Amino acid sequence: MLKSKGFIFTNKEHTKAGIMSTILGILAGGTLGTAVYQSYLSGGGVSERHTAAALLAVIFMIVGMGLGIWSTTEKEKYKLFTVLGIFINTLAFGMLSLILFAGAYVE
What's the rounded Cα separation, in Å, for the pair 31 and 97? Predict the structure, then answer.
């Protein structure tokens, strides 16, 4: 009698903190991108709105990174959104660092 290959079903799921980390990373990158674009449209001038947007993006990044790191401790869960959230938040932090560096040293 041939043994059939069955399917292995699992009850693993993605972490809610990892999904939220990914969403916050996308929001942070989008907020920074919008602030840079609006600054470009105004001729390179920086207003309080651009500063507030950058501060909001920093808050998104910190919370998103914290949620991403925290969700790595959950057992028996998929890690896709956890790793993706940490990567996107790190990418947004690098984007902010590049903006700050360019603003300080590029004339």
Answer: 14
